[in-house]
From TrEMBL, chain A:
<dbReference type="Pfam" id="PF00512">
    <property type="entry name" value="HisKA"/>
</dbReference>
<dbReference type="InterPro" id="IPR003661">
    <property type="entry name" value="HisK_dim/P_dom"/>
</dbReference>
<dbReference type="InterPro" id="IPR036890">
    <property type="entry name" value="HATPase_C_sf"/>
</dbReference>
<feature type="domain" description="Histidine kinase">
    <location>
        <begin position="452"/>
        <end position="661"/>
    </location>
</feature>
<protein>
    <recommendedName>
        <fullName>histidine kinase</fullName>
        <ecNumber>2.7.13.3</ecNumber>
    </recommendedName>
</protein>
<dbReference type="GO" id="GO:0000155">
    <property type="term" value="F:phosphorelay sensor kinase activity"/>
</dbReference>
<dbReference type="InterPro" id="IPR003594">
    <property type="entry name" value="HATPase_dom"/>
</dbReference>
<dbReference type="Pfam" id="PF02518">
    <property type="entry name" value="HATPase_c"/>
</dbReference>
<feature type="domain" description="PAC">
    <location>
        <begin position="382"/>
        <end position="434"/>
    </location>
</feature>
TrEMBL record, chain B:
<dbReference type="InterPro" id="IPR011644">
    <property type="entry name" value="Heme_NO-bd"/>
</dbReference>
<protein>
    <submittedName>
        <fullName>Guanylate cyclase</fullName>
    </submittedName>
</protein>
<dbReference type="InterPro" id="IPR024096">
    <property type="entry name" value="NO_sig/Golgi_transp_ligand-bd"/>
</dbReference>
<feature type="domain" description="Heme NO-binding">
    <location>
        <begin position="2"/>
        <end position="160"/>
    </location>
</feature>
<dbReference type="InterPro" id="IPR038158">
    <property type="entry name" value="H-NOX_domain_sf"/>
</dbReference>
<dbReference type="GO" id="GO:0020037">
    <property type="term" value="F:heme binding"/>
</dbReference>
<dbReference type="Pfam" id="PF07700">
    <property type="entry name" value="HNOB"/>
</dbReference>
Amino acid sequence: MENKAAILKRALQREKEARRQSERILEKKSAELYDLTLQLQESNNKLQKLFIATRSELTGVFANLVDAYLMMDLSGNVLKMNEAAIALLGYNNISDDNLNILDIVVEEDKEDMDASFKLLLKDGELKDLKIKILTKYNTVKILHINCSLMYNEAKKAVAIQGIFRDITKQREDEQKLLSSENRLFLLIEHLDSGVLLQDELNNTVLANKRLYDLFNLPERDVDNPLDSQDIIDIIEDKDLFEDNEAIKERYKELISNRVEVLGDELVLRNGKVLERNYSPVFEDNVFKGHLWSFNDITFKKKYRKSLEAERQKYSNIIANMNLGLIEVSVDNKILMANQTLCKMTGYEESDLLGRYGADLVYKEGVDAIEKVRANRKNGISSSYEVVAYTKKGAKRYWLVSGAPNYSIEGKLLGSIGVVLDITDLKNLELQKEALVRKLEKSNAELQEYAHIVSHDLKSPLRSIYALVSWLKEDNEGKLDDMSMQNFALIESTLEKMEQLITDILNYSSAGANTIELEQVNTSAVIKEILQLVYIPANIKVNLDTEMPVIQAEKTKIQQLFQNLISNAIKFIDKPEGVINIGIIPDKNVYKFYVKDNGIGIEQKYHEKIFEIFHSLNKSKDSTGIGLSIVKKIVTLYGGDVWVESENGNGTTFYFTINKKIRT
Amino acid sequence: MKGIVFTEFLELVEEKFGLVMVDTIIEESNLPSNGIYTSVGTYDFAEMLQLLTSLSAHTNISIDDLLEVYADHFFEVIKRNYAFFLEMYTDPIELLASIENHIHKEVIKIYPDAELPTFEVVEKTQDSLVMIYRSSRAMYHFGLGLMNNTFDHFNTTATIVTEILKEDGTEVKFVIQKT
């Protein structure tokens, strides 16, 4: 029982203590609540003041608002508008009854406006609505509208208020800006250079089509180039370059230095060469990004290389050729001279540069040069000979071939001359000319001499002949037969001598170089000869019926045939002699022949017989001149003469005369 | 741990085992609060553990079973004092699924310093619910009891299978299937 009482006592004690404990807790909580209430009241007061201040401020703001301010009921009927709104719309809610904002929206925007209005009623506010309205003055204006619902104390929407801003002008400007931006974009887009613009964080801002093509970049989205990644990284990751690592290093260097670098060359694995230009973009000294441009210079580069090779080639040719090369300005000052020219003149190149080209040339050449220069100005090329002097004063002959030299723009810069030293050639030519003159003179003299000699020899011969004739007549019957026979021998020797002189005269006149051509009927000429010369009765002459008419000198043709026919008659030893005269058809020449059945000529004499004074037979009427006259005449007519014969079996003389004789 | 858990626990002990048992377990335990509890106070959870252990020893009932019985009692407290929680729901699954997001939020309003277990909903259908209980107190049997009471309250039945995810009982999966 006592135990139970103790337990109860303890339980009670616990209960009391618990009650005190909870009271303490509650008192503490109560105090906390009181403090909190005080704080709340204070902030409430503050808020109230702030609210009043803000409201009065706002009232002032609305009244003086630069932007148009409208208050409407929930159907859009205008309840209130400020001065700016009246100025903007032209309408006045006081004078214009039943002004509804929905009514002044232009037709094309009405649907848009209705939808926006519904949205406003649903969401409580509407921002950035752009709509066209027709003002009272019948002008269309683009308005930018922000509006919201106004609520009463019960949180019920009662009205709409809106700020209207005229953005017509701004819109126009925007349009203009847009179109000029478009133009710029198009321009960049179609540039032949790859263009890349990055912002300061290396994000891609702009990358044109060419850039994608150059680096073979994946599908392209114009509005979002490569999701703003660092294109340079992408390009480098593609491992396109010959020396990828070096290019990466260089890239890091460029973007960290931020200094303009133009004309870096990048060699791609596919053989292309790109030129890279880098410019950092600064605005008011603030770094804004990187601008890159890439040009494909593969072609240019190759072209330049081959051009260089060509240039080298021609330089070598010019330096090593055996011709002097000289370039002079318009006023004839030497601008360039190659080694050969220096050698030719004996001057150093440095001596020559700046000197007048004419100084090198002997006086007699200067006039020619002046004339050439005048031609050169009219663009005429020419070749001419000048006499020049070397540094040591030696006289040299030059053949100069000059041509005008034009600049790329087509302006005359001067001329370029190729010079060949023809002194040796020239000397030979001069020697030859002198020789020919001398020869002509001595030839004439010789002819004259032969003529005179033959003529002068004839008259003493005739005297001797007369004297011998007289001696013979006077001593007829007094001297014995032997002596008389010797007189006859002297006479015949004298006749032969006279014949000899006549022939020499003929020969020298056969060399006369005046040829007067006429139509010569060979058949007629031969018939004349056959009447003139003595033909023994045992000899029969046959003449071809088809003898031609040729262009020649009649007397010479006559001499020709007469010599050959006389020869044939002379050497016929047969009881029945036959002489055939004729022609063998030929395309280019008249090929005549005179054939006999006489004694014939041994093979070894076939050449010799045509030499002067070479008679095979010591017959009284053979002087050994006839065939050499034949040869001379045939040669004169561009022909040839030869013989076919066997000893004892007759002889055939052939000769040709050119069908076209040059006069 | 909130005082109400202690006061209601002792209330239950007094009701089921008499005042002597209340006095015995308080006197036996070494309690910093000396067994003086008020529902608006906050006390160390170790005290609850001592009281439970002591009661289990004297009654030969396991702590888990005790917790389930306590849950029955506590559910009556809820019905009596906080009926509006229950009135907000018409379906026990819905109620259980919203412990974390709704009921515990309301509890925090009344007891801002309460340390509450978490119930993560893993899977939920019309008739089933899988939740993971996490609490350093490892009192999932208390939770299990409350759940059973909830189904009773809505006049429905359900099988609730528990799966211990951490051996000390601080993480337990509840698989609830309406029957």
